[in-house]
Amino acid sequence: QVQLVESGGGLAQAGGSLRLSCAASGRISNINVMGWFRQAPGKQRELVASISISTSITYADTVKGRFTISRDNAKNTVNLQMNYLKPEDTAVYYCNALTVTLRPLLGWGQGTQVTVSS
């Protein structure tokens, strides 16, 4: 089964940018929908963005206009460009394969920590 490893997190100032990458051990070209989730301490894990093979894209209302999801099937990666970061974006970010109803399909990796200072 495909294994996913997230990277690119770190510390950013409010208004700054970070680019997250999700590297797959297998090919993602046969996975219809990929997505990024995040989970803040004491909070429920939430879907941030998703992208399908046909490049149909969804975003959480809280990140629309600020985050951009993309996928490179040739490189087996899914990326999340995060601009105009806010302190409320602070969370551990995870990637996963999704069902057509945007539910996670695979087990969770370690994720990558994003911390945004005010």
Determine the number of helices (DSSP H or I, runs of at least 4 residues): 0
Portion in helices: under 10%
The shape, in one word, is: globular
pLDDT < 50 runs, ≥5 residues: none
What fraction of the residues are assigned to beta strands by DSSP? Answer: over 45%
Q: Order of strands in the sheet with the most strands?
A: 2-10-9-4-5-6
- Helix and strand pattern: EEEEEEEEEE
Name the structural class: mainly beta
Taking the sheet with the most strands, its summary is:
6 strands, mixed
Terminal CA distance reads 40 Å
Q: Which value, in Å, is the CA radius of gyration?
A: 13 Å
The mean pLDDT is 95
| Count of distinct strands | 10
Commentary on this structure:
The protein is globular. Strands 2-10-9-4-5-6 form a six-stranded mixed sheet, with no helix packed on it. It contains no helices and ten strands. By secondary structure, the chain is mostly beta strands.
Descriptive tags:
mainly beta; 118 residues
Short overview:
Helix content is 0%, strand content 49%.
List the helices and strands and how they pair.
Layout: E1 4-7, E2 10-13, E3 18-24, E4 33-39, E5 46-52, E6 57-59, E7 67-72, E8 77-82, E9 91-98, E10 112-117
Parallel strand pairs: 2-10
Antiparallel strand pairs: 1-3, 3-8, 4-5, 4-9, 5-6, 7-8, 9-10
